[in-house]
From TrEMBL:
The keyword Cell cycle does not apply. The keyword Oxidoreductase applies. This is glycine dehydrogenase (aminomethyl-transferring). PANTHER family: GLYCINE DEHYDROGENASE (DECARBOXYLATING), MITOCHONDRIAL, GLYCINE DEHYDROGENASE, DECARBOXYLATING. Keywords: Oxidoreductase, Pyridoxal phosphate. It comes from Sphingomonas brevis. It holds the Pfam family Aminotran_5. Residues 394-491 form the Glycine dehydrogenase C-terminal domain. It comes from the Bacteria. SUPFAM superfamilies: PLP-dependent transferases.
Length: 541
């Protein structure tokens, strides 16, 4: 890949609000392309297929012994993967890693994602050999400490949510939703009540309706009020004998608490249905409110959000599901059972015992051990008071952002009071032709990962900003200053904003084309065969 030719952004014309134009003024030197494509210490890195060679490898392998094949000519003759020497390999991946933005580099304001600092203590604990160097098929008496970690974490998740049981094995939030709905379906089937509809608010995360549809339910929307909450009257009017469950997010995806949650739950239960709560936003209320008190029957907890375990490029998710008394018997296998002196992983159903009503199994083994260890470390190192402060500080930081920006960015729900852990803005008031994407791209130039864009759908051109509790006031002030200046440029219609990002290694990409027609294969562009010559095997794209 070579760097595309860059054109300097046009100098900005109107400058009513005092922002500094980011393009150099006429007469100043314009950055010329470099010979290497590198820019200062930002290094370009081609694909492995472009720099690797088929005859090269970082390790010495003995020539294979001649063996008589028994595959009848069906064996593969080499896989044509390019190789690099060890130092080249180290550089290739180190250069790629430096092109990542990460929470360890700067503020990561992705709303709904809770990109919070992962304390290094978590990593230290997860790397203890007794947790990291074990195997799921090892005899259980040799992994008692690991089983105890799962059991203790299960205890604290139940305690923090005020629920009756927990399924630990789901691997992420969406997987937890599937687990919760399968519990609900099993409970309904057990009472011979095959209901077909799941109600989902308009503002829901896309995984909610997707999960319900995947489970075979028909999905219907519940409208939102002007204040961004579930319309209780509309919900009550729709409840009936065909409704299996309501999937509701609290705090919701507009960053608002649903104050009528208990009334919602009571109405849903009175209609014979169950309440599924999307717990992805639990960070805002952890240690302060218990979903069990609000009438929730099932809720997934994203350990990788609320309990700080790394996610995105940083690690796998983990989505345990807490369950009410009505649903706990249907939880999936396996689960950890504590007896007098030892812990046991119960793998199979036994009649008339715990687990006998289980709907089955969701994963091969027990879930994400590394994430369990990190989450338990986080919970124990914070304690009850520390976790309540996490919630309080996350709400404080989001409200500081909301109130510092509401005069330059339209904040559609700010009239209804404070937000929870994330602040939402719309693109109302931007100059003709300017939208949320222009703000997001300009944030890249300012050195910030963009916020969540165009979600939830109930807000036009939504910008959902979640700073998290671990950002200092100084960090927030810098982010606010950047966003204020960009918002003013969007309102003034600064044409240079349309060219952003101008400082990033890549300019604006055609994201629609990339999503619709992704190029997933490598085609050797060198017709003279001077490159690896692997094109024929990887070609097509
Ligand atoms: C993150 C998120 C999910 C999905 O969780 P994953 O772990 O990414 O599968 C669901 N709902 C909401 C509101 C979320 O923010």
């Amino acid at each position: 890949m070579t760097a595309e030719t860059e054109t300097a952004a046009k100098p900005a014309s109107p400058n009513p609000s005092g922002w500094r134009p980011s393009a150099p003024a006429t007469g100043e030197p314009v950055a010329a392309p470099t010979v290497t494509g590198n820019r200062a210490l930002m290094l370009e890195e081609p694909l492995l297929f472009e720099i690797g060679r088929r005859d090269q490898t970082g390790i010495d392998l003995e020539p294979a012994k001649a063996v008589a094949t028994r595959l009848g000519g069906l064996e593969r003759n080499g896989v044509d993967l390019p190789g690099l020497s060890e130092p080249e390999t180290v550089r290739h991946y180190t250069r790629l890693s430096r092109q990542n933005y990460a929470i360890d580099l700067g503020l990561f304001p992705l709303g709904s994602c809770t990109m919070k600092h992962n304390p290094r203590l978590n990593e230290k604990m997860a790397r203890l050999p007794g947790f990291s160097d074990i195997h799921p098929l090892q005899p259980q008496e040799t992994v008692q400490g690991a089983l105890e970690v799962i059991d203790r974490l299960a205890f604290w998740l139940i305690e923090l949510t005020g629920m009756q049981g927990v399924a630990m094995s789901p691997k992420a939030g969406a997987h937890g939703e599937l687990c919760g709905l399968l519990c609900i379906r099993a409970a309904l089937e057990a009472r011979g009540d095959p209901r077909q509809v799941v109600l989902v608010p308009e503002s829901a995360h896309g995984t909610n309706p997707a999960t319900a549809a995947f489970c075979g339910y028909r999905v219907e929307n519940i409208p939102a009020t002007k204040a961004g909450r579930v319309d209780l009257e509309a919900l009550k009017a729709r409840l009936g004998p065909d409704v299996a469950a309501v999937m509701i997010t609290n705090p919701n995806t507009c960053g608002l608490f649903e104050p009528q949650m208990k009334e919602i739950s009571d109405a849903v239960h009175a209609a014979g249905a169950f309440v599924y709560c999307d717990g992805a936003n639990f960070n805002a209320i952890v240690g302060k409110a218990k979903p069990g008190d609000l009438g929730v029957d099932a809720m997934h907890i994203n350990l990788h959000k609320t309990f700080s375990t790394p996610h995105g490029g940083g690690g796998p998710g983990s989505g345990p599901v807490v369950l009410s008394e009505a649903l706990a018997p249907f939880a999936p296998l396996p689960f950890v059972q504590k007896s007098d002196r030892s812990y046991k992983m119960v793998e199979e159903e036994t009649a008339h015992e715990q687990g006998s009503d289980s709907f089955g199994r969701m994963v091969a083994f027990h879930g994400q051990m590394g994430m369990f260890t990190r989450a338990l470390t986080y919970i124990l190192s914070h304690g009850a008071d520390g976790l309540a402060q996490v919630a309080g500080d996350s709400v404080l930081n989001a409200n500081y952002l909301l109130r510092s920006l509401e005069d330059v960015l339209d904040a559609p729900f700010a009239f209804s009071g404070p937000c929870m852990h994330e602040a939402i803005f719309s693109d109302k008031g931007f100059a003709e032709g300017f939208s949320t994407i222009d703000v997001a791209k300009a944030l890249i130039d300012e050195g910030f990962h963009p916020m969540t864009m165009y979600f939830p759908l109930v807000v036009h051109g939504a910008m959902l900003v979640e700073p998290t509790e671990t950002e200092s006031k100084a960090n927030l002030d810098q982010f606010i200053a950047a966003l204020r200046s960009i918002a003013e440029r969007a309102k003034a219609g600064d044409p240079a904003l349309k060219a952003a990002p101008i400082h990033a290694p890549r300019r604006r990409l055609d994201e629609t084309l990339a999503a619709r027609k992704p190029v997933l294969t490598y085609n050797n562009p060198a017709p003279d065969g001077s490159s690896t010559g692997l094109g024929a095997h990887f070609g097509g794209g």
